[in-house]
Amino acid sequence: MTWLVTGGAGYIGSHVVAAMRAAGEDVVVLDDLSSGVRERVGDVPLVPADVADGETVVRTVHEHGVRGVVHLAARKQVEESVRQPLRYYRENVEGLRALLEAVTGAGVTRFVFSSSAAVYGAPDVDLVDEGTACLPVNPYGRTKLIGEQMLADVAPATGLRYAALRYFNVAGAADPALADRGTANLVPLVFRQLVARRPPQVFGDDYDTPDGTCVRDFVHVADVASAHVAAAAALVEGRIEALTANIGRGDGVSVREVVETIRRVTGTADQPWSEPVVAPRRAGDPARVVASAELIRRELGWTAVHGIEEMVASAWEGWQAQAALTV
């Protein structure tokens, strides 16, 4: 069978495509290339289109014999979602609705959805499990939660089986060519500062955590990709019908610890200008958000295998490779 991967030319999407192909799956990518990079998909068939283009989606399903969808195409920046909420509802919610209408109408019965830990908001618990209340605090998180609810409603009406995967903080690169080219996430954001010989910022150092900075669950993008492969296989084999699961390591790392790891990996730890400076807290930032990954281990046999040092080192290799291409 063939899987349609929406957003497959993006950072996470291209890793999912590579992992699925390595597992022997046939893949076709649909990506509007607004943030994706064509070269990331290599020789995989690429359909340059928006997920809301139902006619193109249906044609792609029929032409490629698509029987399953992995949906990653979405806007994903929290701050941007606050500034442009209607754009997020249009692209993340209406885009998913149109995609589901097209693929279920074309007979697709398997669906893997890219969700987010942002659905939880600011949980006041040591480990966030799937039973933790979903109280998103920004439009991005709300659009992802609505997407999960949409799947739950559509599934019994259409025979769709699905897995909704709630990512925590994704970092790293399995291949330098697939590295994160944006600067919205912590690791590339710090790279950008250090390359410019400017101190990285830490937002708040007075949280109730061991070193005063926020604690997060960072997970290697290669592990995130392998979770998609596991979910896709379980859907094909009929082992799951409606799974919603966290994708994380279950191990919290503070922002300051990540910054210090980055300084060490980049060889800038002894430079005075690399010492992080403390900025005011950002509104809505919870002190600690760390996943419980027990459910996905139990249901799919999946466990993250990469640590924070590997994430930073692989991300730095990708950053340097991209810099070399732009010189």
Automatic annotation (TrEMBL):
EC annotation from Swiss-Prot or TrEMBL: 5.1.3.2
Cofactors named for this entry: NAD(+)
Gene Ontology MF annotations: UDP-glucose 4-epimerase activity
Catalytic function, reaction form: UDP-alpha-D-glucose = UDP-alpha-D-galactose
Signal as UniProt keyword: no
NAD-dependent epimerase/dehydratase domain mapped to chain residues: 3-239
Domain of life where this protein originates: Bacteria
InterPro entries associated with the record: Epimerase_deHydtase, NAD(P)-bd_dom_sf, UDP_G4E
Gene3D superfamilies, alphabetized: NAD(P)-binding Rossmann-like Domain (3.40.50.720), UDP-galactose 4-epimerase, domain 1 (3.90.25.10)
GO BP annotation list: galactose catabolic process via UDP-galactose, Leloir pathway
Protein name: UDP-glucose 4-epimerase
Protein source organism: Geodermatophilus siccatus
